[in-house]
Write a structure and sequence with these properties.
single chain; D-Maltodextrin-Binding Protein, domain 2; eight-stranded mixed sheet
Length: 334
């Protein structure tokens, strides 16, 4: 049998695990703590993917019968995904504090002031979970900060600007399970090969389109958007823009990362400060989008990553996506 020509072997097989270790090797003083945390995100999301795929078979769809700190109905899988993440991260020596959308208070795991460098991990365990019942895309979003050992308490260590993130990512449980990650030097994408049980590198150094005539917003709230957003929508609709909105931030942002466009969650009557959470939704997505060449703002002149948080569950308005498209929105708000 003819041996395939060189190009077949030119493309190395890289897994998320080998990518993490390669990234670690770039930092001589690395202790491996961050690598172990990213490894925990890998195994956790593989477990969540398996439960999500079997949700209807195992009758774990639907509401859990309780509400989360946001006053939102917890889905059964929200609780399951949250538990998986807490238990895997809890076993990683390098994790000082975890904070979840599903827990009112952060969980302090280790806090010895003289110990090794440790990290804080914040996450939304299953964002968009209300889409589960209709087999829509849902996802896990995470943000990793260095633990500030001088902080008086957990909140102080957690309340850092988005610019302080050392890593951010999401896993989209869609037609395939996709892990998108940045550790501050570009954005890489991995797809879970269920036959192998490994995340395989498929895109390295993603750069998003600078422009694309597409916007993503829940127009059902249009009447209560600030006037500038309404002016933008009139302008976009008069200039041939299309509208795409899934109602699951991970799915909507993933589309924009690859096809371009702009995602917005403006202030509304029901959510006057915006609906999305700064620390574990807007900040990680903003880091990814900026690392891929896009922009992310909370308001005109207010870059999301520069917002000084005051509460771990605080909400923010979001305008993020292709640089030119974000500029078009912002130009109508001022
Ligand atoms: P609405 C899902 O509940 C979520 O937190 C995000 O994933 C999504 O972008 C947004 O809320 C959708 O909110 O009000 O349009 O249903």
């Amino acid at each position: 049998m003819a041996v395939p020509s060189a190009p077949t072997f030119a493309r190395p097989i890289v897994t998320l695990q080998s990518h993490i270790l390669e990234q670690e090797s770039r930092f001589p003083d690395a202790t491996g703590a961050l690598s172990w945390i990213l490894s925990a995100m890998s195994i956790s999301t593989k477990m969540i993917a398996a439960r999500t795929r079997r949700a209807r078979l195992e009758d774990v769809l639907g509401v859990a019968g309780a509400q989360n700190v946001q006053g939102e109905e917890q889905q059964k899988l929200d609780v399951i995904a949250n538990e998986i993440l807490l238990r895997t991260l809890g076993g990683r020596e390098g994790v000082a504090i975890v904070a979840s959308e599903e827990n009112e208070e952060p969980v302090i795991l280790r806090d010895d002031p003289n110990g090794e460098r440790r990290y804080c991990v914040l996450f939304d365990p299953l964002d968009g979970s209300s889409n589960l019942d209709v087999c829509g895309g849902v996802g896990t979003i995470f943000s990793i900060l260095r633990h500030d050992r001088r902080a008086r308490d957990a909140h102080d260590s957690l309340l850092q600007k988005g610019t302080q993130q050392v890593a951010a990512g999401y896993v989209l449980y869609g037609s395939s399970t996709v892990f998108v990650l940045t550790v501050g030097n570009g954005v890489d994408m991995f797809v879970l090969d269920p036959e192998v049980g490994a995340y395989m590198l498929v895109e390295h150094g993603i750069r998003m389109p600078a422009a694309s005539k597409s916007y993503s917003v829940n127009e059902g709230n249009r009447h209560s958007f600030p006037e500038g957003y309404q002016r933008y929508l009139d302008w976009a609709q008069g200039n041939g823009y299309s509208s795409r909105y899934i109602g699951s931030m991970v799915a909507d942002v993933h589309r924009i990362l690859f096809k371009g466009g702009v995602f917005m969650y403006p202030p509304t009557a029901k959510a006057p400060k915006g609906k999305l959470r700064l620390m574990y939704e807007a900040n990680p997505m903003a880091m990814l989008i900026e690392q891929a060449g896009g922009k992310a703002f909370a308001a005109p002149g207010q870059r999301i990553l520069d917002v000084q948080p005051e509460d771990i569950h605080q909400r923010t308005a979001v305008i993020l996506g292709s640089a030119d498209e974000v500029d078009h929105v912002v130009s109508h708000l001022t």
